[in-house]
Here is the input.
Amino acid sequence: MQETTEKTDAGWIDHFAGLSALPDDIRADLVKGSQIISVPAGTQVFEPGQSADRLLLLLQGTVRVQQRSDTGREVFLFRVHAGESCVLTTACMLAFEDYSADGIAETDVTAVAIPRATFDDLVARSAVFREFVFTAYSRRITDLFTLIDDIVFQRMDVRLASRLLELAGPDGVVHATHAVLGTELGTAREVISRTLSEFQRRGWVQQSRGEVRIVGRAGLEQLVRSAGEG
Amino acid sequence: MQETTEKTDAGWIDHFAGLSALPDDIRADLVKGSQIISVPAGTQVFEPGQSADRLLLLLQGTVRVQQRSDTGREVFLFRVHAGESCVLTTACMLAFEDYSADGIAETDVTAVAIPRATFDDLVARSAVFREFVFTAYSRRITDLFTLIDDIVFQRMDVRLASRLLELAGPDGVVHATHAVLGTELGTAREVISRTLSEFQRRGWVQQSRGEVRIVGRAGLEQLVRSAGEG
DNA sequence: ACGACTTTGTGACGAAGTCACCGAAGTCTC
DNA sequence: GAGACTTCGGTGACTTCGTCACAAAGTCGT
Here is the structure.
């Protein structure tokens, strides 16, 4: 396994489009100054009040980032996929501030951990690396803007339809309870239940405990489209 | 105006706490590589689809950042005050991506414009400057999280009370129409009207065309506090 | 099969957004 | 200063969504 590690080390950089242009010396330092870590599904990758000391680049799995409000309720903020980095961590790492949101591994996760020292060194030395980092930021901020826009202006049924289409596997099944879908969209479970009932009545989905099966994709897509135009 | 510029140049850096620790050589390059600009109130400082080529540091005035949705409605995102920088610009500048939000000068604005070349150079060379930039990012992202949290979980009356207290001048007067307050909070004008009527009934505010006078500050503060605890 | 837990369904209600419309207050023009 | 026009604020009816309370299933361990 150790033998293959070096090969893996050399290889993971190319999972990230923005890093493939790194010159060889920088690339070598990046590989040398970072390590690959794995955590099982359900692990709290980071949490509020914890100071960040490393940047995570996801190789496999997804991390859900959410915020816990004063009242104990939760809002889903965004999801970090393989091939992406967690700006939140980055932000706090560089600003020497604490996190203000939770990060939870939704699946088993493999990631590259870049310690602050390595990170800072690379940001100083490599324009390519800088651009990689700032692009990640930019993308995430845009996501947040879109999220706010959705929350404020979009109807729940449209948002749910859209999210179901996103979350569905190739077989068209979404594995999630109503409560989970509720926190995903920042709404109450009851609203999800009622909306899904309506979708079922229209023949767009079939429900069973803990999962939703999309059987009328076209209907959901039509709903999303009709709202997208305004 | 040009004569005084050089004197101003030397001084503005100390308006920004995070920059005061800059070493002299960096400081000189920053001053040399940037320029001071002024725009009148109401100017659109930036807009979606326009590529950013400089970072703005506000010396005087405020800039309102908002997003226009597909449907033509607007959501207020945050406000950039004197002594702060506009991360949004930064994000897009560095990522070579376009803006996705509007920036509007609410007052006459004076700002330092740092062109991309200077910015990139400074990020590479100065750890202090890096920290300044990333701290600005971090703060703004945290703001967005708080905003989302508020939108999802906080009652409108609490949010309005809180915003009135923020916007009020030293004389306790807020100059804004109901419609403006509506977009500030991402809600409808009618909701503002009704809520303000209720505040007036309770003796907390007095209304006249285009302005709201706070006459019972304690009541508003009490409302905000009671909700803040959860 | 029993109890404990989780998931889902439902009705009632309050808070907030939407729509349609009105009148009142400023502004402009002549 | 008399209309014409625009902006601003008020109101009622209705819809959507969040909240609360509680019931009915489904699942699991023992």
Chain B has two domains: 4-151, 154-229. Residues 1-8 of chain B have pLDDT under 50 and may be disordered. Chain B touches chain A through 46 residues (CB under 8 Å). The first strand of chain B starts at residue 35 and ends at 39.
